[in-house]
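wait is this the right file?? whatever heres the structure
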């Protein structure tokens, strides 16, 4: 086997291996791209749902915050009228 034939065989083998590698890499990238696109569409629809539900949740949160503020104010006023004994028990 001469050095020229050996060189030609090596070039052919590396060419085939390189081609197979590139084809496999292209298949993997295409598969990942398809999955990412599906995931992106799912995330976009979820965000749209959350944005529409935030219009309902925001007023409810404001009412809850108002009620908590009123309750805290009542607790503070009640603490002024408690006897010292009750305060010490806490």
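ok assuming it is, sequence goes like this
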């Amino acid at each position: 086997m001469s050095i020229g034939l050996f060189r030609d065989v090596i070039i052919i083998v590396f060419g085939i291996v390189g081609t197979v590698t590139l084809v496999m890499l292209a298949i993997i990238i295409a598969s990942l791209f398809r999955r990412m696109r599906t995931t992106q569409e799912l995330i976009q629809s979820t965000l749209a749902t959350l944005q529409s539900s935030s219009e309902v949740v925001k007023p409810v949160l404001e009412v809850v915050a108002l009620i908590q503020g009123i309750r805290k104010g009542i607790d503070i006023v009640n603490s002024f009228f408690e006897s010292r004994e009750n305060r010490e028990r806490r």
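The chain has a mean pLDDT of 86. so i think its the right one actually
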